[in-house]
Amino acid sequence: MSLLGVGRCGECAASRREKRRLRREVERLERRNRELEQEVARLRMALEEARRSGKRQAAPFSKGKPKARPRRPGRRSGKQHGPSSWRALPSAEEIDEIVEVPLPERCPACGGEPLCSHVAHQFQADVPPVRPHTIQFNVHVGRCRGCGRRLQGRHPRQTSDALGAAAAQVGPRALALSAELNKGLGLSFEKCSRLLEVAFGLSISRGGLCQAIARVARCARPTYQALIEKLRASSVVVPDETGWRVGGWLEWLWVFVGEDVTVYAIQGGRGFCQAAAILGADFAGVMVRDGWAPYRGFERARHQTCLGHLLRRCRENLETALRGTARVPRALQRLLIAALDLRDRRDAASLHKHGLAVARGRLEAKMDRLLEWRPRDEENRKLLAHLGREREALFTFLRLPGIPATNWRAEQAIRPAVVTRKVCGGNRTWNGAVAQQVLASVLRTARQQKRDALELLADLLRSPEPVVAGALLTGRPP
Question: Which residues fall within 8 angstroms of residue 265, CB to CB, at 6 or more apart?
């Protein structure tokens, strides 16, 4: 064999050894890559679990383990931490009683005679003792001389014609207060009954209170239907939905907030059919909503997607974004903040109509260029796909004055229901669910219009026939 052949054989052997080494290195890197991908997936699942745990009903106010050295509770002293405040002194017209507090006859230390130098004033505002105001109605009962039909009188302050075993009743304002405590503030029937007894000396059982509140809801149902009709005529509606249980089964609590009316509805789903059952499928106003797909089924409406949800999604993506994957959420975050700044300048009258149109056009052009990006990261692809579906609903608030950029009205309206859900979980029966949606709507609308909800419900209870509370349909009072 020639030296040339020997040299070539040596080179081939070295080349084979190098290939085997490179192959082993590739296999090692592939194994390492698979391990890292599994680790990333595990960490993402842990992060998602941590995010969800903060929204669960169990321990809703937990912030983790207590600090080893917590700060002293209470307000910090000093002017740099805000102004100090105290109760204002009452006027002379507000004082109901004056009590003289003389000096003791003798000094408790030495037994000497005291000498008065001046008189200081101290004021104490307290709740007076309350006892139920009981009314006896002498109801005249008789018959018609012509047809022999039984007749009985009715006073405008009565809430029922019942006599005999049902003659002892609870008054309308007490029932209206119970409805506010139970449906508006989330107190259980047991706590409502206890509060009425402790604060007002009015004794009523849990079962009796439950039946009485159901009767209040029946009296308010015509008003509830009228509120739905008024909501459908609203120019701007802000909807939202959350989970709700009826008889232990998962249902959905919807809320729809108009200019001066709020409607709650407990339904068996969270799709377009349930929303259209309240708003009507042909709703043609402006809908300010989150990115839930069924809302896009209202084709005649103009839409504004909630920028708060998009900004929150950007922050969540930035928490897990790697070096190159942060470009998309950062760019979207800058665009949305610029849109909100433009809205503030318009509302402050520091921007003319032409300047607003030019600035809005630049924002829309930047958004279109952002939608043309083709990122490799899966989360960024999902975000841009969602933006593509919501493109026409991103900047409606810059085109129409008075349109909010977020669905904060619905978020605030649904918050009391979420607190109630944390306490009781929902309703046991569908009758209770109907009472919940009716009374919550009437109470929230009365609060929205700054009206006396207790007097309004009391008037509905005093009416001989079911009527509509017309005050809620006239709009917000001055």
Answer: 253, 254, 255, 256, 274, 277, 278, 437
DSSP assignments along 379-435, one per residue: HHHHHHHHHHHTGGGSSHHHHSTT--SS-HHHHHHHHHHHHHHHHH-EESSHHHHHH
Q: pLDDT tens digits, residue range 68-121? A: 888 887 777 777 777 777 888 999 999 999 999 999 999 998 988 999 899 999
Specify if 85 maps to a domain.
no
- The average confidence (pLDDT) of the chain is 89
- Which amino acid is located at 251 in the chain? E
Q: Are the C-beta atoms of 400 and 186 separated by less than 8 Å?
A: no
Decide if 327 is inside a domain. yes
- 244 within some domain: no
Could you tell me the residue range of the domain that residue 327 belongs to? 307-396
Q: pTM for the complete prediction?
A: 0.79
Taking the mean position of all CA atoms in its chain, how far away is CA 238?
12
pLDDT digits (tens, 9 = 90+) for 83-92: 777 888 999 9
Task: Give the pairing type, strands 286-289 and 302-305.
Answer: parallel
Exposed/middle/buried for residue 467 (C-beta within 10 Å: 0-12, 13-18, 19+): middle
Per-residue pLDDT at 59 exceeds 50: no
Q: Number of folded domains in the chain?
A: 1
The answer for residues whose C-beta is within 8 angstroms of residue 305's C-beta and 6 or more apart is 289, 290, 291, 390, 393, 394
pLDDT(477) > 90: no
DSSP state, residue 183: I
In-domain check, residue 50? no
